[in-house]
Amino acid sequence: MKIGVFICYCGENIGRTVDCAKVAQVAATFPGVEHSEDYKYMCSDPGQNLIKQAIREKNLDAIVVGSCSPHMHEKTFRKAAASAGVNPYLVEIANLREHCSWIHENVEEATAKAIDLVRIAVEKVKFNEPLTPIRVPVTKRALVIGGGISGIQAALDIANAGYPVTLVEKEPSIGGHMSQLSETFPTLDCSQCILTPRMVEVYQHPNIHLMTYSEVEKVEGFIGNFKVTIRQKARSVNAELCTGCGLCMQSCPIKKKAFSEFDEGLAMRPAMYVPFPQAVPNIPVIDRDVCTYFKTGKCMMCQKVCGRQAVDFEQKDTFITEEIGSIIVATGYKLYSIDKKPEDSFIKGYGEYGYGKYKDVVNGLQFERIASASGPTSGEILRPSDKKEPKKIVFIQCVGSRDESKGFSYCSKICCMYTAKHAMLYKHKVHDGEAYVFYMDIRAGGKMYEEFVRRAIEEDGVKYIRGRVSRIYEENGKYIVKGEDTLAGVPVTIDADMVVLATAMMAQTEAPQLAQMLGVPYDKYGFLAEVHPKLRPVETSTGGIFLAGACHSPRDIPESVAMASAAAAKAMVLFGSDMLEREPIVAKVNAGTCAGCLYCKKVCAYNAIEVKEIRNRQGELVKVVAYVNEGLCQGCGTCNATCPSKSIELIGFKDEQIFSEIHALADMY
Amino acid sequence: MDEQKEWQPKIICFVCNWCTYTGADLAGTSRLKQQTNARLIRVPCTGRIDPVFILKAFEAGADGVLVSGCHPGDCHYNAGNYHARRRCIFFTELLNFVGIDNTRLHFSWVSASEGKKWVDIVDGVTNKVREVGPFRDYHKLNMVDPILLQHDEVAIDHV
Fold it and tell me: Partner of A121 at 20 to 30 A CA spacing, among A197, A297, A470, B129?
């Protein structure tokens, strides 16, 4: 086998710490290496041309490139080799940048390590085989998990392109947090006014199969060929018969037992309820935890008044399995709020703000409900404890965000903007009210955002104080807010009637669970991980699964909408052709040596191993062996490590390849 | 060969492509400096790792071996890291029985976002192995039969 070695300087990135010329020189002495050279930028057109030229001139069979991580340019060099006639799988990458030059300083040691890494790749490629990609059919149907603004946008984009979409939402209605907002920055558009037309469009779209009050239960399969099981929870109402007249809700006697989730605990709702009047679909749900019938077998008022006999107390959860080609995760965020038991709360602390103790110390979403025309106070700014109009409100930013000691270290991005918005809304409604904002910084980086905050200060007279609040306590019916004005260098005390905390934007509690179900990585906060933060922000490392919106990281509505459209575009790339090409790194069985113990079948996580009968010409059974379904095999190699006779091998990572990589290091130092 | 140079431990690491390899990439992108003793061998999943690889690594002269994969529950291939964990538990017992210091074999779970953690682990393992000293016994055993080694080289040249 004739091997070509190409060492890249990557400008200064590798060249500054690794002596690339020396690496190329030493590589030239390795047995099997026919050609070895170095170049400033191997991935560039001239760089790739050097590779193609060397292949043609020296009849190379395989190439090794010492460069950045294979995650960056393995595909690039595979394509380059292929265009010069070398099978793309006879290409190995030595990671001299992320794993060498960028993490070391000593040039001598880094160069010695680089030489070892190149040698590992050279020895491995000697045992590589030419491979062709596997082609599998694609199911041209998308699944969108989450029916907030991101999920709605993604679903509409895909549906309008002509492809069928299933949209799954766990709440009884779509709309997400955006439906709870009163107005949106920076336009002060009425949130529901701009959202509900989209919600209706989703409901009426012939290409969208909307499943509300449903959750994803299981995900099997792989890109282009997922099989998703969805649990449709029992509403206790037959959706086919219900007209949304609302008589059942009006007649429900249990009006004061349950806190309305939509109103963030500021109002009560009946046992038979719809989360908000503009809910889509407008079909109510029975909260079986508080419903009298489910507790004692009595009442049944709703069933009595329903003219369509749509109430069905016997209804059970149903499971529906769908064939899906690509999945978009748009499960959104959760705002940090004090749970019923503060000690169970993820963020411990802020007790010093009286959060959870004083009714009038509320979070951002609660203030949205107070300000909202359809909220518990019909849009009048009235404080929760005594429904009096507060004349002084203090807004505190960064509660739980940018706080390493007892919160999250990240910035929640939207709070500076919505706090300015809240203060403006308050001033618009209570003309003689005073609004104070305690801030650390003002982050208003979007279009018209900075101007918006300026408006709050200059036109609406909101007073901004740079400093943190150390304590809030109640005295004589007022909330004494003790803070600091760092610009003036003085402590500040304000006797407020109400306090609004801009609490942190968090990942949903069940996000890690969903991520594990999908096989998508997530970080320590529960936010789902993208492949590359700069260049591939909507893709996950699991092929066919994309991210949209705040489930990825804190973001506002325009960014969520943009990201949703981006994810939809990525999802539709798969639908562009009937067949999908998959990496041929799959397992293969040598039926000659296989004893049919089927241990491999036991450990395969994808049920990709089948049993095959080997018969002689007379049709008599000779033996039973394992057989790999290439369409299902994902190439993990667990079977290979398990097989006692090594009759099943992972092509691309066979024992001989890995042994040769290890042997390559035998002459280290 | 520079005999006068201070002995440096040789650490061979078997890392899974999706989590640890990517985490190590992140350490690189973040320019987090670490010791130069580790050599990484990429596998698609720690489930691919046969305990024989660990033996071969010692045979090749490694003073320490590190196996690192995704956190339990997060394996890109669902369950590969569980298989790796079980194999490694048994294998560690076996090595112990045979008299090989457990300080030479390490396992870790490093996710794709844990660049700093990877650096801490590599440096930690390097330091621990430096303390127990060079592991020459197995390597010497391998060198005793040069005929076998020659056979290997012939096989490689033939390709």
Answer: B129
Beta-carbon separation of B10 and A637 below 8 A: no
Cα–Cα dist A609/A624, whole Å: 13
Which of the listed CATH numbers 3.90.550.10, 3.40.1500.20, 1.10.600.10, 3.50.50.60 matches domain A142-233+317-332+508-575?
3.50.50.60
Task: Collect all residues of chain A within an 8 Å Cβ-Cβ radius of residue B27.
Answer: 98, 103
pLDDT digits (tens, 9 = 90+) for A239-285: 999 999 999 999 998 877 788 999 998 999 999 999 999 999 999 99
Q: How far is A513 from chain B (nearest CA, A)?
A: 9
Burial of A650 (0-12, 13-18, 19+ CB in 10 A): buried
Site of tokens 């899974």: B16
**Measured between alpha carbons, how far is A37 from A9 in angstroms, rounded to an integer?**
11
pLDDT digit string, tens, across residues B105-155: 999 999 988 999 999 999 999 999 999 999 887 766 655 555 555 555 554
Q: Residue B15 falls within a domain, yes or no?
A: yes
The set of residues, in sequence order, having a beta carbon less than 8 Å from that of A586 and lying 6+ positions away, is A134, A628, A630, A633, A634, A635, A650, A651
List the single residue in B52, B152, B159 with the smallest CB-CB distance to A663.
B152
Residue in B21, B24, B77 nearest the CB of A634 = B77
Domain span holding position B36: 11-158
**Cβ contact B113–A529 (<8 Å):** yes
| Common-topology check for domains A142-233+317-332+508-575 and A336-506 | yes
Best A534, A600, A636 residue to mutate vs chain B (most B CBs within 10 Å): A636
Domain count, chain B: 1
What pLDDT does residue A582 have? 86
